[in-house]
Write a structure and sequence with these properties.
The complex is a heterodimer of chains A (457) and B (471).
Chain A: H1 8-21, E1 26-42, E2 45-62, E3 68-73, H2 78-92, H3 124-139, E4 145-164, E5 169-185, E6 193-201, H4 209-222, E7 226-227, E8 232-238, H5 240-249, H6 256-261, E9 280-285, E10 306-311, E11 314-315, H7 322-328, E12 349-353, H8 356-359, E13 375-381, H9 384-387, E14 388-389, E15 394-405, E16 408-412, E17 415-420, H10 421-425, E18 428-438, E19 441-454
Parallel strand pairs in A: 7-16, 8-13, 12-19
Antiparallel strand pairs in A: 1-2, 1-4, 2-3, 4-5, 5-6, 8-19, 9-10, 9-12, 10-11, 13-15, 14-15, 15-16, 15-17, 17-19, 18-19
Helix pairs in contact in A: 1-2, 3-4
Chain B: H1 13-25, E1 30-46, E2 49-67, E3 70-76, H2 81-94, E4 114-115, H3 123-126, H4 130-147, E5 151-169, E6 174-192, E7 195-206, H5 211-214, H6 217-231, E8 235-236, E9 240-246, H7 253-258, H8 265-270, E10 290-293, E11 314-319, E12 322-323, H9 330-336, E13 344-345, E14 354-355, E15 359-362, H10 369-374, E16 378-390, E17 395-407, E18 410-416, E19 419-423, H11 424-427, E20 431-434, E21 439-447, E22 450-458, E23 461-469
Parallel strand pairs in B: 4-6, 8-18, 9-16, 15-22
Antiparallel strand pairs in B: 1-2, 1-5, 2-3, 5-6, 6-7, 9-23, 10-11, 10-15, 11-12, 13-14, 16-17, 17-18, 17-19, 19-23, 20-23, 21-22
Helix pairs in contact in B: 4-6
Classes of the chains: A alpha+beta (457), B alpha+beta (471).
Chain lengths: 457, 471
Amino acid sequence: MAVSTLNADHLRADLERLARQQGIRQWDLGASCSTDTSVQVDRGEAKQMKGAQRSAITVRVWNDAGLVGVTSTSDLSESGLTRALSGAHDASAFGNAADTPAFSPLATAPLQPRDQRLHEPQSILQLLQTLKDAEQQLLSRHGAIDTVPYNGLAQRSSELLYLNSEGACRHQALTTASLYLYARAEEAGRKPRSGGAVRLAYGADTLDIAGCIDEAAERTISHLDYAPINTGHYTCVFSPEAFLDLIGAFSSLFNARAVLDGVSLSSRESLGQRLAVPFLNIDDNSLHPGNIGASTFDGEGTPTSRLSLVQAGILSNFLHSEATARAFGVSPTGHAGMGAKVSVGADYFEIGPAGAEAGGCGQLGLDLNQASSPLVLIDSLSALHAGVKASQGAFSLPFDGWLIQGGERRSIEAATVAGDIRTVLNSLIGFEGQAKVTPDGVCPHVWVDGLSITGEA
Amino acid sequence: MTPSTPPSLLECSGRLEALLAAGRGAGADLVEVFLERTDHLGLLAEQDILTSVSPAFGIGAGIRVFLGARDGFVSTNDLSDAALFSALDQALGMLGLERNGAAKQRFEGLKPLRDYAAAKGDWLQRCPVLQEASSRLLEGTDLLQRHGRHLQVRRGSYARDWQEVLVAASDGTHAHDVRLHQSVGLNVLAADGEHRASLGRRYGTTDQPDELRLWDADAAARDVCDSAGTMLYADYVEAGQMPAVLANRFGGVIFHEACGHLLETTQVERGTTPFAEKVGEPIAHEAVTAIDEGLSSGAFGSLSMDDEGMEPQRTVLIENGVLKRFLSDRAGELRTGHPRTGSGRRQNHGFAAASRMRNTYIAAGPHSPEQLIASVDRGLYCKSMGGGSVGPTGQFNFAVEEGYLIENGTLTRPVKGATLIGEAKEVMPRISMCANDLELAAGFCGSVSGSIFVTVGQPHIKVDSITVGGR
């Protein structure tokens, strides 16, 4: 299959010519194209093999009144570009005069270099064999593991492009690969249990396949011996993945767009105020080496960078697009999407202790295997889309995890954890172990006091 | 990169025959091509301003090749001959096939076109233009202001999704359709001191160009504001095991999540449904009859044909508690033996079709809603549900957006923060009473073949015992 590529020079020339024909003087464009291959297997057989070639552009135009309109399309033919420009121009008549985006002042600023070596794709039959082998190894780890119902090995070659009518040009080429293995295990007379793991890399040849198998097997087996838990309040220890998920679900706390829209728990006045215990730091760091496949620029061409959000428990910065930064009188931070109303989103959280000089580290030497009272270890949270009320601060979420008593660890049959994010951030006891690099961020285990657990005992 | 755009997908039929013949000639058991054109409009109004207008349009093709029970699938945004044959070659290569030499399998040609789009040609033009749509939406946010109290945020959103599809397969399948989905939603955030409540409602229809014109914005705004006003000062629910009465309409998400997904053949293929060998056996309380169909006029999950070109059926899934059928698509029939039900669905050309729900609901029973509530000494009444999900072992969960305590057979105070969790196998026998007030509600379902338009529904139902997560 032919691999599509984005030719910035051609696209710019086409856009300039078509815009001139339509009397459009100011425009910008975000484009992407990708070629994907992926495989899934089922008990030694290929279940599905997929390939995809995708391309998409979003065009914004400013009309003579300075209002912005936008149109997106997957049709990159001349007729598609013409229609996209004219659609965006039509939409600009309905632009929001009270909140009009402009070009980012950083759209031509230097980008931070990143080590993202491009990898040659493997053939789909190579991917298939690799996944068959991985499935077989996982199935052989324990007699109770009967299937790996959710699995996939995928690779992608992609390009991103940002152009604007003032000459900005951003381009990035990437290769990425991913592996996920989610096993199901069942013992006679007992309920089925499951567990899984994910790995990302810049190429299929560098995926940590053995680590993924080990982690999926360990998780699945650890849930075989389960029991219901009594409803009550427990000290909870969040795994790095679970705590990152929780913070991500409430990232509107740090989002200037959400603040301006009135749907964040934070306000303009929250900056400089205490949000959490004094030993907590939260950064957003798109540049972290663990952020596989990160973009070097955002939807407006602004370079991505590291930004402190919570410093020693104090809310220190918000995530910004060009428009929100202008409203706050600061610089864009590289967290914008692209649209008539530009979205803002976090990239990659780094969570950890602030250090003694900033207010202590919380309790030191925490070890969940040495705890004297019962602990709930929350391994993974589910249904964040349904169980989180970000604008209220409330959450009630099913989870997989273990009850730890007297050094013994036993899987919890089915339970939910509920609370308020502001209370959680102010009820941290401390951190355990080294920070773990995950696909969503970096975080150690996090101890939280007194969360409400509902079980079926 | 200069893909060509056809003026109409029907003009591609001739080209597709050559593609299908080539795939069969290479030895494929079956080749299927799915072409689409889309046209989307999204609007967002906040407070009294239109803040986002997001038009989008697209083209694409998905080519699927079967050999035995295996398949390869390739999608592309490029509808040129070269790109389509390249995609075919890639899909054939996944199965160890290639185009060379003498034809290994014959292609008998496409059957006469079944053109469901013939009467739908002007639907897109009949939808409200931008000016009219934005006016209606701003009317909605204005009505929220009039009917609500302590509203910090008022939002209205509208989405119009038009899709033209052409399905052609080497078994002769040749079908063309146009789909039109429109939805409009109202959301509010109410705040009073430390009290906050966020609530929303969304309404959606299929194949009704006048949907937005006919939308009762006043009733919708009153409904949202009433609920927000009630929930603003609600306490958090006390956790535990208790009986629950779930209201009609979107309450049907419990059946969708707890059981419906487990009756799709994709789950049989994965070995993740506990009901795989249970056809003909009781899996639910005898009060429960459940149906999935794609036929109800205007319902969000209705179809003239599925994404494999088959007309949808009315499929009785459970009758008086006994499992009758699974929902099946082409691959599901091939791999599990369950006959196709016109349930092969996908978000777009980038996904292979899979067995998915359409309009899914529990049938009406003999009781009044009041009888259900009166039968509960202490429990939870779930008036409005949020989203939910089901895991790989059949564990489901969903959020209660608006809840009330039931005490001594009567609704008392509002409660918030409840999440219902359980397992399908355990909860289905506990649905012991169904009321006589079946209603449907529009929704979106995300699964293996992407996010699709569906309807959930039920009358009021009573679950004898369920785990309510809370504080």
